[in-house]
Amino acid sequence: MKTHMTVLAGLLLTSVVLSPTVSSEEQNARATQLISASSMLAGLAPGALFPFVDTTPDGIVRAHIAITDAAAHCGPGAAAPANIVVLAGEAGGTLVSVMTAATNTGIGSEVQCVFHVTIKAGQGGLPAHVTDIVVVNANNSKALTGINTVTASADVR
Questions:
Q1: Which of 28, 42, 143, 155 lies 20 to 30 Å from 69 when distance is taken between CA atoms?
Q2: Residue 148 is part of a domain; what is its CATH number?
Q3: pLDDT in tens, 25-69
């Protein structure tokens, strides 16, 4: 019996010693969840807000957002979206506009142009804790149409 206990203790000690250690960076990566969402924005009323992504109380570490909208000129960095404003930040706190002329990819035409942006919490004027991505119909006279879309993927922790 004593021999069995010695062997069992030896195996247990060996498994603890040989088990891989995990860095805090790896632990954080494991705790991060990837989310993805897409939506047609047809019918979003003039001036209306659409809380597209809300991860409260968890924070968005990094997100990639793409929209389609009309533009005065569809060319890389040429013009901002004509009808859509995308805000990112924390509800009840700071929300920052993240779709500018710099996000114009030049893919498409003036009728339907693709805009892309990658945001990171605490950078580019964003607060350190980001929980929300909000789409706003900035056109105060007409609803958005079927050419207007939004897609986002985000690392949430």
A1: 155
A2: 2.60.120.1390
A3: 555 555 899 999 999 999 999 999 999 999 999 999 999 999 999
* Calpha distance 74→112 (Å, rounded): 8
How far, CA to CA in Å, does 80 sit from each of 64, 105, 119, 135, 156? Answer: 17, 10, 17, 14, 27
Q: In which domain, by residue range, is 143 found?
A: 33-156
Q: Residues 9-29: pLDDT tens digits?
A: 443 444 444 445 555 555 555
Q: Which of 22, 121, 39, 20 is nearest to 84 (CA)?
A: 39
Domains identified in the chain, total number: 1
pTM for this predicted structure: 0.81
What the block records as the tokens of 46 is 């003039």
- The SS3 of residue 60 is strand
Distance CA 92, CA 61 (A): 18
Q: What single-letter amino acid sits at 15? A: S
Sign of CA dihedral 68, 72, 75, 78: negative
